[in-house]
Amino acid sequence: MCGIVGYAGRERCVEVLMDGLEHLEYRGYDSAGLALQREGRIEQIREVGELRNLARTIAARNGDLSRVQTGVGHTRWATHGRPSEENAHPHLGGDGSVAVVHNGIIENFAELREELEERGVAFSSETDTEVMAHLIAERVQAGETLRVALAGVLQRLEGSFAVAAVSVEEPGTIVAARHQSPLVVGLGEGENFLASAVQALLKETHEFLVVENGEIVEITDSSVEVFDAAGDPVERESFEVDWDAEAVELGGYEDYMLKEIHEQPAALRATLLGRLDAEGAVDLSEIGLDLSEIERVVIVGCGTAYHAGLLGKHAIERFARIPVEVAIASEYRYADPIGDENTLVVAISQSGETTDTLAAIQAAREFGGKVLAVTNTQGSLITREADAVLLTKAGPEICVASTKAFTAQVAVLDLLALALAGVRGTVAEGELRGIGRDLRLAPEKVEETLGLVGDRVEEAVELFDDARCSLFLGRGTACPVAMEGALKLKEISYLPSEGYPAGEMKHGPIALVDEYCPVVAIIGDGLVREKTLSNAEETVARGANVVALAREGDRAARRMARLVLPVPEAPEILAPFVCSVPLQLLAYHVAKERGLDVDKPRNLAKSVTVE
Ligand code: M6R
Hints:
Blueprint: E1 3-8, H1 13-22, E2 31-38, E3 41-48, H2 51-59, E4 70-76, E5 91-93, E6 98-106, H3 109-118, H4 130-141, H5 146-154, E7 159-167, E8 174-179, E9 184-187, E10 192-195, E11 207-210, E12 216-219, E13 224-227, E14 233-234, E15 239-240, H6 256-262, H7 264-272, E16 296-301, H8 304-320, E17 324-328, H9 329-332, E18 343-349, H10 355-366, E19 370-375, H11 381-385, E20 388-391, H12 404-424, H13 429-440, H14 442-453, H15 456-462, E21 470-474, H16 478-493, E22 497-501, E23 519-522, H17 529-540, E24 546-551, H18 555-560, E25 563-567, H19 575-593
Parallel strand pairs: 16-17, 16-18, 18-19, 19-20, 21-22, 21-23, 23-24, 24-25
Antiparallel strand pairs: 1-4, 1-10, 2-3, 2-4, 5-6, 6-7, 7-8, 8-12, 9-10, 9-11, 11-15, 12-13, 13-14
Helix pairs in contact: 3-4, 4-5, 7-12, 7-14, 8-12, 8-16, 12-13, 14-19, 15-19, 16-19
Residues 302-305, 349-351, 354, 357, 400-402, 487, 491, 607-608 line the site of 5-amino-5-deoxy-1-O-phosphono-D-mannitol.
């Protein structure tokens, strides 16, 4: 949470910082600010609320900032101190001689603040970050270089952070460090960059350096130097990021969410490419793990990633007959987890930064489990913590509500299930290939779904006009899909929504049902179809307006429901894909109807880097 960006180079600093912040705004949008090195001073410009407020202030300066060559910027998700101008970053120390931007939490800030106050330092904010600015400034005033000062201060900090600082004493230089929060360096010609995530800098560069925990990096227009905690230089290879700059633009769509929903066919195609051939054979040799030794699987993730994990459990248990536990990452680490070296721990995280998921990995390490990361973000923290990585190739996901990353995660878990089944011989080879060929149809079927749902979803939105809550029901794989549908709706429309196993509904949630509680029922096929229909009927009998997700020609669904959102005929393995898409669109249109910002829902941020 929070996004930081830094630039050292030419007279385009403000433009680069603002563009970088715009692409990091998904990380937090409570306030934003810049600290700019000007002749012999640091200018701090901050505004409460979304970045556009800061942009307006900067525009009003009529080009007065166009000569600035070095600076840092920040977009905030408030942890300590309410969103206000005083609490907005950057924070200044030493009477404005040092400025700091920070992502993370300084857990021992209260004692550090007390200590500084005893020395007569006056604070101007309620944030944990300000202690860093003062501590660094004290050391710089005592004659230390900015880098040495930062290194000294880091020794005193507890918590997680990515921090970047500038000082009036060192024009043209930025120093930065991180511990458990992300930070990358972008490499340019005659200019260099810093950011919390690569997507902030894709317009500028595709070549990046990772900064590891505890390291300090110093950048100027012509140099990038990495140092370890002892101050010794570290050699670091750069890496290329193959995302296009256009991938982080709206490209004609009204919102990122709508764009990302429509990008799902392409995301699935890219994710399956090279891993599933035309005959339906799966090749996951890229992970370099011996899957034949796996006796148990644990899947950890948060939010949407957890729901993808629930679908992964269905696939792995069904095809590979390996017991799978799915755990909410924030609970897992405190649950004294059980496992051994034959346990495969699959950690799912779109951002690759989620602190709870990283902590769950560490817990798995303690019992010797093998960790496979499923992430969308090359070079992210999780890729460096895991034994092996399977990238979802969904491209950058900007909207806080996850859509294309979710279906790509499900595709990767299906591939894993088929690979495990192949190694264990739990499904006859011919049948396994048939399922693989079915999975290859995912992009086309999702495309077909997008076409089929069309305007129908907007009719469904009317049923939510007077809703006070809503219930999403499904059985089997439709249950995690229902949970994900409810999460999508509640996070962007603020309508309380529950995703529940359809059969379990009458053990409690049915008490919610009346005409103001629309029910979304995923009818599905096979064994559970009739039972789900009956469960949906039970809600109709209690006054609910039911939206059914069903095949177009499903007469029983049509009879029972107020409205059918049609899904195409599809092989069983594709049911979660074709059912998820209409629910994403439903959430999107309900939120739009309520006039809400779907990309930046209140209180949320895209990557959750606090516990
Ligand atoms: O980046 P991650 O996949 O680790 O993020 C996990 C959750 O924070 C995320 O899925 C969250 O639930 C989304 N806002 C859901 O749309």
